[in-house]
Give the backbone structure.
Amino acid sequence: MQFGEHQLRLNVPVALTEALSNAILRGNADDPAKRVRVHARVTHVSLVIEVTDEGTGFDLEACTVDPTTPEHLESEDHRGLFLMQKLMDSVERLPGRPGNIVRLVLRRAS
């Protein structure tokens, strides 16, 4: 499918797991009555995965910190967004109705 084997075996599963975890724990505040939806599509140029929660929203830039800096080394927060951005070609937050949509994009190898 013209994606790197490493990307499909490691990058996508880790990024998707982080997105799902954030949607459940942060977006939906671990409320079992709220849903998380996943939509994936493969086009001729990319794999696009969208994870939608029912949360109130967040600022992607403000919530993304580098956990490798001295002041964040011992904190367990915000590592998921950092990992998603390192493992995928792009990560963006879109407004949902209701909630948040986090779009993960992996482009095909050229």
